[in-house]
Amino acid sequence: MSKWFPNTVRFEGPSSRNPFAFKHYDADAVVAGKAMRDHLRFAACYWHTMRGSGADPFGAGTMRTPWDDGSDSVENAQQRVGVFFEFLGACGIEKFCFHDRDLSPECATLAESEAALDRVVTTVRAEMERTGAKLLWGTANLFSHPRYAHGAATSCDPRVFAHAAAQVRRAMEVTHELGGEGYVFWGGREGYQTLLNTDMRREREHLARFLHMAVGHKRAIGFTGQLYIEPKPCEPTKHQYDSDAESCLNFLREFDLLGDLKLNLEANHATLAGHELMHELIVARDAGALGSIDANRGDTLLGWDTDQFPTDLYLTTQVMLVLLSMGGFTTGGLNFDAKRRRESFDAEDLIHAHAGAMDAFARGLKIAAAIIDDGRLADFVRTRYRGWDEGLGGAIERGEHSFTSLDAIAKSQGAIELESGRQERLENLLNEYI
Amino acid sequence: MSKWFPNTVRFEGPSSRNPFAFKHYDADAVVAGKAMRDHLRFAACYWHTMRGSGADPFGAGTMRTPWDDGSDSVENAQQRVGVFFEFLGACGIEKFCFHDRDLSPECATLAESEAALDRVVTTVRAEMERTGAKLLWGTANLFSHPRYAHGAATSCDPRVFAHAAAQVRRAMEVTHELGGEGYVFWGGREGYQTLLNTDMRREREHLARFLHMAVGHKRAIGFTGQLYIEPKPCEPTKHQYDSDAESCLNFLREFDLLGDLKLNLEANHATLAGHELMHELIVARDAGALGSIDANRGDTLLGWDTDQFPTDLYLTTQVMLVLLSMGGFTTGGLNFDAKRRRESFDAEDLIHAHAGAMDAFARGLKIAAAIIDDGRLADFVRTRYRGWDEGLGGAIERGEHSFTSLDAIAKSQGAIELESGRQERLENLLNEYI
Amino acid sequence: MSKWFPNTVRFEGPSSRNPFAFKHYDADAVVAGKAMRDHLRFAACYWHTMRGSGADPFGAGTMRTPWDDGSDSVENAQQRVGVFFEFLGACGIEKFCFHDRDLSPECATLAESEAALDRVVTTVRAEMERTGAKLLWGTANLFSHPRYAHGAATSCDPRVFAHAAAQVRRAMEVTHELGGEGYVFWGGREGYQTLLNTDMRREREHLARFLHMAVGHKRAIGFTGQLYIEPKPCEPTKHQYDSDAESCLNFLREFDLLGDLKLNLEANHATLAGHELMHELIVARDAGALGSIDANRGDTLLGWDTDQFPTDLYLTTQVMLVLLSMGGFTTGGLNFDAKRRRESFDAEDLIHAHAGAMDAFARGLKIAAAIIDDGRLADFVRTRYRGWDEGLGGAIERGEHSFTSLDAIAKSQGAIELESGRQERLENLLNEYI
Amino acid sequence: MSKWFPNTVRFEGPSSRNPFAFKHYDADAVVAGKAMRDHLRFAACYWHTMRGSGADPFGAGTMRTPWDDGSDSVENAQQRVGVFFEFLGACGIEKFCFHDRDLSPECATLAESEAALDRVVTTVRAEMERTGAKLLWGTANLFSHPRYAHGAATSCDPRVFAHAAAQVRRAMEVTHELGGEGYVFWGGREGYQTLLNTDMRREREHLARFLHMAVGHKRAIGFTGQLYIEPKPCEPTKHQYDSDAESCLNFLREFDLLGDLKLNLEANHATLAGHELMHELIVARDAGALGSIDANRGDTLLGWDTDQFPTDLYLTTQVMLVLLSMGGFTTGGLNFDAKRRRESFDAEDLIHAHAGAMDAFARGLKIAAAIIDDGRLADFVRTRYRGWDEGLGGAIERGEHSFTSLDAIAKSQGAIELESGRQERLENLLNEYI
Prior knowledge:
Four copies of one chain form a homotetramer. Chain A has helices spanning 36-40, 46-51, 74-91, 100-103, 110-131, 158-177, 200-221, 245-254, 267-272, 277-286, 313-325, 347-374, 376-384, 391-397, 403-412, 423-433; strands at residues 10-11, 21-22, 30-31, 34-35, 42-45, 95-99, 134-139, 182-186, 191-192, 226-230, 239-240, 261-266, 290-294, 334-336.
C-alpha cells in the first residue's frame, strides 16, 4: 500500500458505490477480442500529476504535495519519482509520459541539466523495473524557459534552435534508453504573437529542418519508437504552426515528413481549433497518421486549455469507435494529459480524477464494441454510399468519366430523389448503448 | 446617369463630405508604381448585389428592388443584368463575379436551365461590351438546390455528382466565353452534418476526382483562367472539407492538385476558422497559392458569416501589405462578397456600401505603400532574423548540422540573451500611417 | 393510426431495438412521486414541426410534407392543423406551442390576418377537443415580416409598435380562448445591428412599456396564464436586449416587471450567450423566475442557433436536477423548440427526433431522481457550506458583523486550511447514474 | 531623466517619427472645451507595470527588471515604488491604480502583511507628493492567495470571508489616506468551477453582504470616493457572478446596491462576455452607472484575457463618443489595465506600449469630438426616432395607450414603409474622421 495514496483502486463492478473502485475498468476483461488494458493502453503524465501546482494566471499553486520539499534539488526530483510510481500502482495505470524538465531541474548550464536528468532517469529506470510500468512516450520541454520566448526550432535566434536540438537529442536518447514506444513534439512556442514581426515562411522551414534532424538522430541512435507531432491552435501564442490535424498533415506533406511522424491528438486542442476530437481522429486515421491520444476534455464555453479529465461518455465512445475501426493503437495509447481543478488539491483527488476517466473510457470501449456488434450504424453508412460501389458511382471512382460524359448522364437521369440522412435516428441509436 | 442609381460616385478627395463621393479611391492615381485600379482590381458580386433579398433565418426579404418583377422568368433575369451593369457604372467597379443560378433561373430540367442561362449570358455579354466591364471569375451554385443537401461532389448519391459535373462544365464554359480570368469552387455542402452517417475518406476522394475532372475540362475547352478553391470552416454544414487555407493546401497536396488550383480567401471565412485574414493570406502566399480575395469582414463576436462590407482600415492595410509583398494580384482581385445589412434596403445603400469599402481599400493601399516606403517595419523583421543569414543559422539552413553537432555548439555557447519582439512598438508604427 | 405517421410510438422498455418505440419514456410510470408525463410536460412546437422547411441561408427547403399544398390559403393551414394533431398522437405528446403566423397566413391587412387566424383556431380547438391535447403557451411572430426589420416594440417607428401591440393582443386572446397556460415574448428583432444608429435607452423603455401593456391586457381579458420572456443573445440581430437570464432579470427589475413575467429558457440560447443551460436555470430558479424550458441543444462549436433535438444525457440530467430541486414545473413544460437537420427530410424523421428526445429526458428524470435519492451530492454541498450555518458564518449571514469586527477575527483566526472542492469525484458520481 | 526610463515622452506632433514621442497626445491642448488630460484621465496600473513577470501557463517570466532584486522584502517593494513613479514621469501619466499585494508582500500573518503595506504606502505617499501623481483607485487582491481558491466573499468557508473583509478594510483605508478617487471590486474568484458543488444563491447573498459592509465601512471612515464593481465573465473560474454589465446591474438592483456602486468596465472583459465595449459602456451609462474604464483590448480570436494595449482607433473612438455623450468622467479615468506581450521584455517596451495607447486615445478623442461637431451622426439618430417625439409615439411614451387602443390604430394605419437603417453610410461617416 502506498504511503501517499492509501486507496488502491480495484474493479468492483457497476453497482459499487466505493469512490476508490473501478465500476467498469477491469484490465483483464476481454472486450472485442482483446483485454481492456490492451485496447486502452492508459498512461499518466508526469507533468500535471507530479509537477502541476494549481497555479493559474490569477493565483498561486494550491496543490498539497507533502512529499515534495519545494526545492529544485535532484534529490527532491528523485523523491518525486518514487511517489509517481506509487501513484501509478494505486490507479492501475501501466504506462507514463514525461518531459525532460518535469523529471529533473533546469540547471545553470545545459551540461548540468543533462547530468541532473541522468541521475533522475536512473531512479525512473529502477522504478520501472520494480513496478513493470512502461514508457509510452517522452518529450522535451521547449516552451517554459525564457530562452524559448520567441520559439524553439522557430526562434529568430539560431542559438535557441541549437539549444533545442541539444535538448531533444538527449530527451530522445533517454526515451530510447527507457524503452519508450514513442517521442512527441509539441510546439507550444512554435508560432507567433504578431505577424508584424514574423517571417512565417522561414520559421516553418526551420521547423521542418529540425524535424528532419530528429528523424536523422532517431536513426543514428537506433531508436525505433514512433515520432509524433501534436496539434494545438493557440495558447500560449496567438497561433502555433501545428494548429490542427490538417495543418500538421499539410506541413508534413510539404516537407516530406509524413512517412516519419504521426499525430498525437488531444481532445481539448481539437475543440480549441473548432473541431470535435472525433473529426481530428478520422482526419488522422484516413491519412494513416493516427498515432496516440492525449485523453482529456475542454470546456467548449471557455477559450483556453482547461485540460479536464475525460468523463463524458459521448466523447469516450466516439474515441473508441474510431480506434476500433482502425484496429486499435499500435505504438500509441490514451495518455491522461489532464489536470485536477485548482480546487481539488488533495492527493486523493488525483485518484478520483484518473479512476473516473479510466472508467469512462472502459465504458466507451464497451459501448463502442456493442454498437459495432449491433451493426446497424455501419450498415446504414454502407447502404448510404451504395451508389458508389457499382454502376455510375463505380465508374466515376474508377476514373472512367469526364465532365462531358457526366453531362450526358445528368441530362438523361431525371430528377433525383435523395434519401434522408437520418441523423436523429442515428443519435438515438447511440443513446441505446450509452 | 442610371435610372436606379442616380448618384455616380466620383473622386472628390479626403475633405469631401459628399456621401456619394470617393474620398480616397482615385482609379487612375498611381501608388507604388501602379494605378489604384490595377492594384485593387475591384469586383462586385452578382449574388448579393442583385439576388440578395435580405431574408435571414428569422425573417423574409426586405430589399427594395423595383426593377425586379419577382418572377423566375428569363426576361426578368435579363432585366436584372442591365440594372447590375448600371450599378457597376455608378460605383466605378470594373469587374464582376457570378454563379450560374444567380444569373438565370433553375428550370424544370438541366437542359432548360442551360438554355435559360445561355439567353441571360447573351445579355451579359452585350452589357460587358457596352460598358467595358470584365469578368473576374465565374462559379456554379452547387449548394442551394435540395439535390445538394448531402453535398455535390461529395454527395452519397453519384447522380448528384453527375449533375454537379454538368453544371460546372457549363459554368466554366460560360466563364471562358465571357473572358473570365478565373473560376471558383466553394464547397458549401461539401462536408458533413454528423460524422455518424459520413464516410469522410470516400467523400474527400470524390471531391478530388471532381476537381481533377475540372482541370481536365479546363484544358479540353482551352480555358486558361485560374482555378480557385475557397476555404470556409462551417456554415451551412457542421464542417466543410475546405475549412481553412491549410486544410485546402493539405487536400491539394494529397491529391496532387496544388499545381492547378489557388486559393480564393475571404475575411469572414478566415475569422470563422479562428484565423485573421492576414494569416490566411500569408499561408497561401508562402505556398504560391494566393489567388484572389473575397473582400468582406465578419463580426468576430458573432458566429456566422455576416459578410459585412470591409471598412476597417486595419484589415485593408493588412491585406494590401501582403498583396504588395507578393507583387500584387495576377488573375485575382478584390471581389466584394459582401452584403448590406437587412435594414439597409434602399438601392442607394448598395452605393454607400461599395463606395465605402472601395475607399477603405484605397486607404489601405496608400497606408501599406507608405509603410513599405518608410522601411522600418521590413528592416525590423530582417534584422530580427539576421542570425539565420550566416554563421550558425546559415549553416543550419544549408543542412550542415545534426542534433549531435548542435549539441556541441549548445554546450559551448553560453546563456542566450534574446532581443525584444517589440510588438507594441510595431503596432504604434502601423498607427503612424493609419 | 395516422395517415402521415403510421408508426405510433409506445413504451417497450430499455431492451427494445424498435426505432419507433420508447425505451425509457413511460408516461404513467411514477418517478419521484409523480407520473413521468407530469414531471416532463412535453410539448411540440408548431413552427419547426409544421412550418420548418429546411431552408437555410445557403439553400432552399428540403422537407417532404405531402399534406401541404404549398399555398398560403386558410384551407391549407387548416389541413396542416389536422396533420399536427396526428403527429402529436403518434408521439404521445400532450401539449403544444404556436406563433400566430405559424398557424395561419399573414394577409394583406391586419384585419384579414386576424380573420384567417380565427378560422384556423377553430380547427385547432376542434382538434384539441378531439385529442385532449393542451396548449402550453402561445406567442406572436414579431420578427419575420419586413415591417419588423428595425424591431417590434423597439422599432424606431411607433406604427410598428402599434402593429405589434395589435398582434400580441389577438395572440394572447387566442391563447386564452384555447386554455393556454402561458404566453411567451421572444424579442428576435428587439435589439440592434449597429450602435451607431440606435438609441438603446429609448428602445428599452419602449419594450418595457409594451410589456406593461401586455400585463394590462392580460388582466383586462381575465387571462390567468403565466407570461414569459425568452433570453437569446444574438441572431438574428447583433444584439438582442433579452440576451441571457441575468439581462432579462435586470430589465424586469428596472422596469418593475419581475412580478409579472418569468423566463422561458432555451439550451441553445444559453450556450450562445456563453452559459450552460444549468447555469441559466439556477439563475432563474433563484430569482423565482424559472417558468418554462425550450428543450433543445446547440452545437457549442458552431456560432448559431442549431436548435438540435436534446439527446445528451448530461444535459437532460442537469435540467431534471434543477427542476426536481424546485418541485417541478407549475405552468411551464419542456417544449421541443428543435428542428430536424435539413437532411432529415422524411416525415418519419420527425418521429425519430421527438421520440429520442423524450427518451433522453425520461432517462434524465430517472437519473436525477436516483442521484437525489442517493443523497451524496446534496450532502456534499450542504457539508461544504456548513460554516455558514452557525458560528462565524451564521453571524455574518444575520448581519452581525462589519469589516471592523471581522478584521479582529481575521487577525486572530490563524491560517485557513480549505477543503477540496472534489469536482472530479462529483463528476464521477454523476457518471455512476448515467 | 529617469535611470531606468531614459526617454521621456513628449508631444512632437503627427509628423514625428520618434518612437518615444507623442504624435497626438498633448496634455494641455483643448479639445471639446477641456484639456486632453482632463478628458482622458490616464492612469497606469501597478500590477502589470511593476509586477507583471511575463509568466504564462506554459512558461516562466521573461521581463527584465534590473531594479528588482527578486526578493519579497519590503525594501525591494519600496525600491519598486520609486521606479514606478519614474515610469509615470517618463510617460506623462498622472494617475495610477494598485492592489494591496502588488505594492507589498503577503507575509506570514495578516498583521505583518498590513505592517509591510504601511511601510510601502509611506514611500508611495512620498513619491506622490514629490511628483504630483494622483491615485485613481485602489483595490485588494482577493484572488491570488490559495486561501481564495473557493472565492473570497463567496467562499464556502466564512473564515475566508473574514480575511477578505479585513484585507478590503485596510486597502480601502489606504486608498482613502492616499486621496484615491475610487475603490474597485473585481471578483476573480467570486464564481464557480462547477455547479455540482456550488450553492449559487447563498454565494451571491454573501457577496451582497460583503459589499454592504464595504459601503458601511466607507461611510465609517469618511471615504467619499466612488465604489466600482468590475464585470468579467470567466477566467480564472468557469463563471464569475459579475459576468457582464447587465449581470452586475441585476445584482446591484437585487441587493439594493445600485446607489452605491458604479461599474469599472474593461474592453477585454466585454469581448470575453460576447459584447463590444461600446455596448457595455452604453448599458452602464444609461443606468447612471458608468464609473471608470480599464483601457485595454482583447484578441477576439482568442478566448482569454490577453490584456493588450488599446491601439485600435475604432475602439478608442467609440469609447470617447460615449464618454463625451455623458459629459466625461467624474471620478473615473482610463486605467491601462494592459500588459506588454511576454516577448516585449525590455523596460523601453513599457514606454512604447503606454505611449502608443495614449496616442490612440488622444486620436479617439479628437475623432469623436469632430464627429460630434459634424453633427450628422447624432442628427441621423434623432431623425430616425422622430416618430416618438410627438403624435402616436409621444402618446405611447406618455402612457396614453393600451393594446386595445393601439389595435384600432394598427387596423387603420395601412401598410408601413420603413426607412433604411443606413448602417453602411454611418460606418463610412466614421471612417471620414478616422
